[in-house]
Amino acid sequence: MMKKCLLAAVLLFPALAIAETSIGIVYPLKALQETTAVKSKMSALEKELGPDEEKLNKLGMEVQELQAKMQKEAMTMSPDQQEEMKTRGQQKMLEIQSLQRKLQGRAQATEREVMEEMGPKFQQAIEVVAKEKKLDLVINAQAAVYVGDSAVDVTEAVSQQLNKMK
Fold first, then answer.
1. How far apart are CA 126 and CA 160, in angstroms?
2. Burial environment of residue 79 by CB neighbours within 10 A (0 to 12, 13 to 18, 19 or more)
3. What is one cellular component GO term in this UniProt entry (predicted)?
4. Is 121 helix (H, G, I), strand (E, B) or coil?
5. What's the pTM value of the predicted model, to 2 decimals?
6. 21-33: per-residue pLDDT in tens?
7. Sheet of 152-153, strands arranged across
8. Domains, the chain, with CATH or none
């Protein structure tokens, strides 16, 4: 009889421990995007890339105009004129692709810079918030299969803590 009680207690102990665990969830990307530092970096990036984005849009419109003109006037154009228009269109497409790679590369570089700078701070902010809210566990919300009502969303608190950190 004693062994059965002891066995039942051992089996129930982990369930009781889990029931007592307070859990927080965090949306890391949202927490970072809401910080002053990240907003500032994104604003600077937009200013830096603005002229190239405008050029990209302009090139896209020029390609569309060339395609429309080709469709509309193909029957009346000479083969040389058609070839010249195709060549111009291909050149513009190559320029578009090059500009897209440049913009994408710069955006990825900025993302890496942000993560290198903010990654350790993010971890510290989570630890501070977890202690303040007396949480035993904080998990990435995207990794959770189910989040019940008892879980505490600490995303905003983490963003606020990050803003306090220098």
1. 11
2. exposed
3. cytosol
4. helix
5. 0.67
6. 889 999 999 999 9
7. 137-140, 23-26, 152-153
8. 20-164 (3.30.910.20)
